[in-house]
Prior knowledge:
Layout: E1 6-8, E2 17-19, E3 25-27, E4 32-36, E5 47-49, E6 54-55, E7 58-59, E8 75-77, E9 81-85, E10 92-95, H1 99-121, E11 150-153, E12 159-162, E13 171-172, E14 176-178, E15 181-183, E16 218-223, E17 229-235, E18 241-243, E19 269-274, E20 285-290, E21 301-303, E22 313-315, E23 325-330, E24 346-349, E25 355-360, E26 366-369, E27 383-384, E28 386-387, E29 391-393, E30 399-403, E31 408-417, E32 426-429, E33 440-446, E34 449-455, E35 460-463, E36 472-481
Parallel strand pairs: 23-24
Antiparallel strand pairs: 1-8, 2-3, 4-7, 4-9, 5-6, 5-8, 9-10, 11-12, 11-13, 14-15, 16-17, 17-18, 19-20, 20-21, 22-23, 24-25, 25-26, 27-30, 28-32, 29-31, 30-31, 31-36, 32-35, 33-34, 33-36, 34-35
Amino acid sequence: MAEGYFRFGGDIAGYVVAVGANDTVVFAPGAELLAWPSRAGGDPYPLLDDADGQIPFVTVSDGNNGYSRGGLPRFQAPAPAIWLGDGESPRVLALTTDLPDMVAQALLVAAGAQSSVNSHASSRNAHETGLADLTDTTLPPPEQRLPGQMLGTLPGGSFGLLTPSQASGAVILNPRNAQGQYVGQMIPPPDPSAGQNGPSWFRMQATYSPDDNLPDMFQLGSTTQGGAWILTGRYNGNGEGRDSPSDRDRVARRVFEMLQSLGGPSRKTFFELSTNPTNPADREKLFAAYGTGHASMPGWMVATRVLAGQKGVQAGGNHNALTSATLRGRSAGTGAPTAGVWVAGDVVLDAAGSWWLCTETGEPGTWVGGSGGGGSAAPTALVDVVLGPGMAHGAKRCRTRLEHGGAVGRLRGTLTATGAVASGAVLATVTADHRPESPVTCIARSSTGGNKLTIAPNGEITYAAAFTSGQELWLDAITYDLEP
């Protein structure tokens, strides 16, 4: 049988008759019948034979096709009740021969439904709420409800929409009944005189878990463009609040001061981390953010105890055109740092109690300070000289640096000749910042003995002796004044 079609004909009532001579009733073999959806009017239904083939009409049997003379052969129509006719005589109602099967199937479905209803009525549902715990109620349409109304039960037993003033003592929705006692989310009567220690309007309480192995009591989340769920906020089973951002470019939580259009900015603290003593009056603001409208500390972040930073604590420095400074901590030795990479603005306290300020980023950078901030400056970093023709660095690289706040230069290291170098030739050149303002002369040792060494204002280093390949010039910590 084709889908959506019903079978007709071939049954005991499936015969077609006509009026014969002298008003006799005779069979009407060969009559061609159509099927309509109504007794009059409308368009004929499309018909199928018993093998699902399309037919233009139903032909009454002449007794030669396996059906009785005048009988209706098996055919299909797309409705369980049709009106048959030849287009001229009145139409006659015919019902599908599938009707007994349809009735039997309906009875089976009804029996199954009744069984499910009986089972549901005699047991609790998946939410552990029995029919005895439910109450029928009628709610007014949304346009007739008042703001702040809620669905609940008063102590007297009535159930419906409650005004906020009626909500004291009400039960949220329909809490579970466990052994005759209501458990779950309750709204106890508020007591204004109890203040902050009064009963809460909303409470969720979970069993204690020493290993924090409980389902979250409350969750908030976001959905990515791809539909993935991201947990952004929760209160875990032990009531600990935890937040995480929904995107790597977003923050997890923001705390704003009072909105300017509503009377802001805030004039007192708008964010606090505090102690929790028995007496609220004894609370200590361990860390607090003051509003930008505060009279004496606008926008300050204040810690009442130790504020620790593992890699330093930085002051922004935009007050009165200052630049930032970063307190890095206290060193175990004395003097400015001599190793590691440091950034301009770093501040270090040495073991002797002297402060040192890095004025130029580097390794170890340029430092000033000492003696509580009023002493001599720390040496600058060592800088290689520029080698002249036929010269190379020896066992110790030839370098210069500034000391005593830039007033004194120091030349150190070894130069080695790689070929013949004439007396008075330029052996190397000192970097521009480390050059003296007037010529500097001294005696320096070499493989041939001691001779005069000169450092010119243009930084050129010359020696009053010639070199052959492999001979060396030792510059044993030569110091010179940059100013005459």
